[in-house]
Structures
1.
Amino acid sequence: DGLNIRAKAAGKLYFGSATDNGELNDVPYTKTLSNTSDFGQITPGNSMKWDATEKSRNVFSYANGDSIVSLAAGNGQLLRCHTLVWHSQLPSWISSGDFDNATLVSIMRNHVTNLVTHWKGKCYAWDVVNEALNEDGTYRTSVFYNTIGPAFIPIAFAAAAAADPSAKLYYNDYNLESAGAKSKAAANIVKQVQSYGAKIDGVGAQAHLIVGSVGSASSLQSNIQSFTSLGVEFAYTELDIRSTTPMSDSTKAQQASDYAAVTTACKNVAKCVGITIWDYTDKYSWIPSVFAGQGEALPWDLNFVKKAAYTAILNAW
Ligand code: XIL
């Protein structure tokens, strides 16, 4: 029994985890990650990003991404490939480059085409565009938006579809877990890409959530349906639920019920295809380094002991 077994029994494609290259030398860590009872899918946390794959213009490095691709293949796990076009973790030749519209379009198409072609047939899904929106639903300022305008999004999707027609192409962002201006704008991105004549298959809600602010399963569920009603699938792509540390017993109990609410919401919508947690153990969570004083966000503690959150997810499927 395990999280992935239960997810599949509920009709989902997978329950999965992010991982990163450095962590794979940790033998007990990799052993649990490779156990398909719990994990039927993995996402490389960093090694497919622009700064990792195209550090200098048109010079591509695939070795770290390839290691995670082979790990997944060896374990029989699906792969979510992450991410092609994002304002963050860009090499300086692009973030501080001064390109005109046509040049940046060709740089972006070249990046997308090279990565998607290199991993063609290996990626169940690609996060094609990541975090293009502000909280109020306007487009975020980025080198891509500033130079190309909103068309950078459909152009990226069209290039990805041409390079691997069978990969599921996603728009991925945070704060898309509940209704509001940002979720509405993400739905508009889906419609824009469709009206441009390009393929978009899914919306990914990162779901970097806070204990006690997750909301009910039914509100999460109706928000998922606001995306799936557009004809696309949905996934929780980077789930973690953080709090100030150390967590009290009541905070731990709240965290478990928050994990259960997210799981129930996905379970209840046929086109929610799966849930990925953003690594599985607090030992390798990104939270403490970015949100000072917060953490304990994952279902396994830093000694690989399963928490109440684990059992809550298991039972919610
Ligand atoms: C994070 C990684 O986990 C960290 O190791 C890295 O230092 C920064 O990026 N949204 C995303 C992910 O789409 O790519 C981010 O991953 C977390 C937020």
2.
Amino acid sequence: MKKKVLLMGASGSGKTSMRSLIFSNNPASLTSRLGATIDVEQNHVRFLGDLILNLWDCGGQDSFMDSYLSTQRSTIFQHVGVMIYVFEVESRDMPKDLTYYRDCLDALRKYSSDASVFLLVHKMDLVKGDKGTQLERKRRDLQAESGDVEVTVFGTSIYDESLYKAWSRIVHTIIPNAAVLTKHLTTFAEACSATEVILFERTTFLVIATSSPPAPPASSQRALANGAATPGSSSTVVTAPTSPVEDVHKLNATRYERTSELIKALKHSCSRVREEFYALEMELPEFTAVLDEMTKNTYVLIVVHDPTIETAALKINIRTARQKFE
Ligand code: GTP
């Protein structure tokens, strides 16, 4: 099953940068070297066996936008599963951005009336004042511009986990059996006596689904969210550094995405020393975590707070459950 995802927005709003970060694992620092996208660049990413995400990165220069909305209208806007529209938080020409957005929305409604719409208020790192207030104001404006079309708005930046968070939520809506996956993961968590189980897509490390767990103790959330790792051989044992006192509630909301970011950084470090990343084990006094391949396209992270549970047992459970998740 192929899901077409349109990535649209003004030139320079950051579309190719986010694609390069999430799908090609490039660091944010390299995005300034990206050239403008000419017409449409397509990407295919296989998610969970049959599901292929077909990403259309649509160059945002006016001449291309005009062409999408006229001669290429039906080609661009038909069979769309999701449209992601990117707005720069401090756009130089918001009225023009909004005119194009409304035209795209009209075309989408005509050719793909069931498509979901996600709006990214991007480059939030550039906001000087109160980011929350600014985002709320943008959210209200964009919702008003969208009329009766239901839209979901995220504030994002390539310099923090907000981008993973938005994309994980978007991908979650694309997966047809997300609820079933959550159910299976919850059963699997119970079988492992785990506090929680998280399923990541293999290339992007986007969060696909999680078990529905009781909230784990704050100390382990901090350790997981802040745990630095060193590259090693096939299996890497890491210890979490002492973390500064942070707002636990904030961490609760972002720890999965922080985990994605850290694992991608670890994979990057591994490739720099010509090692391949296979799996990860963390054995700390407060909890144990195992990250291992679940299927061809996914990794699973199991977090256990019961000190009597051995990591080897968790790995056997992963091996046993593999077939169920293929
Ligand atoms: P077109 O291909 O012309 O449609 O542009 P685009 O939307 O693909 O823009 P692109 O990804 O090429 O990004 C333009 C610039 O924005 C680059 O210099 C990026 O480094 C920068 N950029 C992207 N995301 C962010 C962000 O979150 N914060 C900041 N400060 N800059 C960003």
